[in-house]
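dumping this here so i dont lose it
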């Protein structure tokens, strides 16, 4: 990892993508957007399973990445457990990020209000849940990128500039 303050893991949560029966479109899009913004990114695909999701998040945190973004598993379906896997891992929640992610498209796509995604810190790593669609990643990544570098600086003792 060349620059830990600009390191990220993009985690796709999808049973079908993990099984190889559906192409993952959201994860690669998120990876590309992060890389275009200067982040070093590793992509991971896991099934809709609490332990698998938590394990992937913890592996990224243990590797010292500054940012973990998940895509998928934030809805109301019976297998949508990303918030349940993420919540217990967070030391501090940052509700403003999750609220903003839901609000940016609510007028255009009211169903976005049904996303239960969370955002917060695990140690010095920012963890953010996005809904599992390319549109959610396309719309949400600018929100995350608008604060991620600042968060990485702040948790490492930087000033509030």
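and the seq i came up w/
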């Amino acid at each position: 990892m060349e620059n830990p303050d600009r390191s990220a893991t993009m985690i796709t949560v999808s049973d079908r993508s993990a099984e190889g029966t559906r192409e993952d479109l959201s994860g690669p899009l998120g990876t590309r957007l992060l890389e275009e913004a200067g982040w070093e990114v590793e992509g991971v695909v896991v099934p809709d399973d609490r332990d698998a999701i938590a394990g992937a998040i913890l592996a990224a945190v243990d590797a010292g990445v500054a940012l973990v973004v998940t895509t998928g598993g934030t809805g109301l379906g019976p297998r949508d457990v990303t918030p349940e896997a993420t919540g217990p891992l967070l030391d501090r929640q940052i509700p403003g990020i999750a609220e903003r992610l839901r609000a940016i498209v609510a007028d255009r796509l009211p169903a976005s209000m049904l996303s239960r995604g969370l955002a917060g810190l695990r140690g010095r790593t920012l963890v953010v849940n996005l809904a599992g669609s390319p549109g959610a990643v396309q719309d949400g990544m600018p929100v995350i990128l608008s604060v991620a570098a600042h968060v990485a600086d702040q948790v490492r003792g930087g000033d509030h500039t």
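The two ends are 25 Å apart (CA to CA).
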